[in-house]
Amino acid sequence: MFGRIWQLLSHDIGIDLGTVNTLVLVKGKGVLIREPTVVALHKKTRQILAIGTEAKRMLGRTPAAIEAVRPLRGGVISDFDTTEAMLKFFIRKVHETPGKGIFSLPKIPRPRIVVGIPSGVTPVERRAVQDACLSAGAREAYLIEEPMAAAIGSKLPVEDPEGVMIIDIGGGTAEIAVISMGGMVINKSLRVAGDEMDAEIVNYMRVRYGMLIGERSAEEAKIEIGSAYPTDSKDDGATVIRGRDLSNGLPKSIKISAAEIREALTPVISQIISSIQDILEETPPELLTDIVERGIFLAGGGALLRGLDKKIAEETKLPVYVTNDPLTAVVRGCGEVLDNLDLLSKVKVTGGLR
User: What are the φ/ψ torsions at residue 47 (nearest 5 degrees)?
Assistant: First the structure.
């Protein structure tokens, strides 16, 4: 009886639990939450002070008693309690339960949740995600791998006996997979993605200009003028980056060109392309023929890097396409399987009841 009541009161939810951003889709309503995966808490009491956008604004700017943390690293949970608190907050926000504070609310409905996870995580890491969802209030929590979710969300024919190649580049991982008949024939998960690109920009500024900048400044520069392939334009864009001069400790500002940012990003992009080539070499010939005809599909926030599709196409000699709204491809795939229980039973990697 109680299970039936929970089903009536709660919304089925799809979650893309990303290293940088968390997206939440509600069945029948679309993507309702797009928040940074950041939590601000008091160091001594561990009390949660802010979650999402508000917490991200605190990164690198908090007093000694407060820390802003990212509870996921490399696509996996590094801080279980903080992740559970964040998921609980998002679930309550979706159900719009009234209350005086974000953690003073009454007992919430228990939704069914489908979560996208990196394909390379261990069984222990999978269990940690599932347990975090169940502890946050889910009555059922199912996990599907991000490349499969991205392919489903991109409306690719994953159940057909034909090869589909998808690359999902997020903040913590880059997922490369060849999919056929509802399963991944071959796949590779790299802990090299958006975060590593930001780190390379930070390193480039330190080595080239003797200047220390924060990860947030590096990310902003990447978004503003970052690219993987040169454009035909004479003025390829530039931006001003501010940081600290390592020689004297004083503030410093430097105008950086898009070509320099592209140079900084080259090692990460080359590593991703090398892995793509490795996967193509290992793909069965029949499926490879399908990929040659259909092309490669890019999803995830990394797919928005200017010229990345052209760079991959040049190196692989294959057509490359960016999926529609690549940022939400994984969470839309999670939402699709909420409506299709047969497909969910094929693609889930684990699942269970509270």
Answer: -75, 135
| Backbone angles phi and psi of 26, in degrees to 5 | -105, 130
Report if residue 60 sits inside a domain. Answer: yes
Structure pTM? 0.88
Please list, in sequence order, all residues whose beta carbon lies within 8 angstroms of the beta carbon of residue 211, skipping any fewer than 6 positions away. Answer: 205, 241, 243, 244, 245, 246, 252, 254
Please tell me the distance from the alpha carbon of residue 233 to that of residue 257, in angstroms, as a whole number: 13
Weakest-pLDDT range from 34-43, 140-149, 224-233, 268-277: 224-233
User: Which pLDDT band, with edges at 50, 70 and 90, does 63 fall under?
Assistant: confident
Domain extent at residue 40: 2-149+330-353
- For residue 238, count other CB atoms closer than 10 A to its CB: 16
CA–CA distances in Å: residue 10 to residues 31, 66, 339, 354: 16, 34, 15, 15
Structural domain includes residue 158: no
Q: Is the dihedral of CA 76, 80, 86, 90 positive or negative?
A: positive
What total number of domains does the chain contain? 3
Nearest one of 19, 170, 145, 24 to 96, comparing CA atoms: 24
**Shared domain check, 287 and 187:** yes
Question: What confidence score (pLDDT) does residue 349 get?
Answer: 76
Q: Which residues pair with 212 in a beta bridge?
A: 244
Q: How far apart are CA 221 and CA 216, in angstroms?
A: 9
Q: Which of 119, 144, 148, 143 is nearest to 131 (CA)?
A: 143
> Which 3-state string (H, E, C) describes 19-87?
CCEEEEEECCCEEEEEEECCEEEECCCCCEEEECHHHHCCCCCCCCCEEEECCEECCEECCHHHHHHHH
Q: How many angstroms separate the CA atoms of 118 and 143, rounded?
A: 10
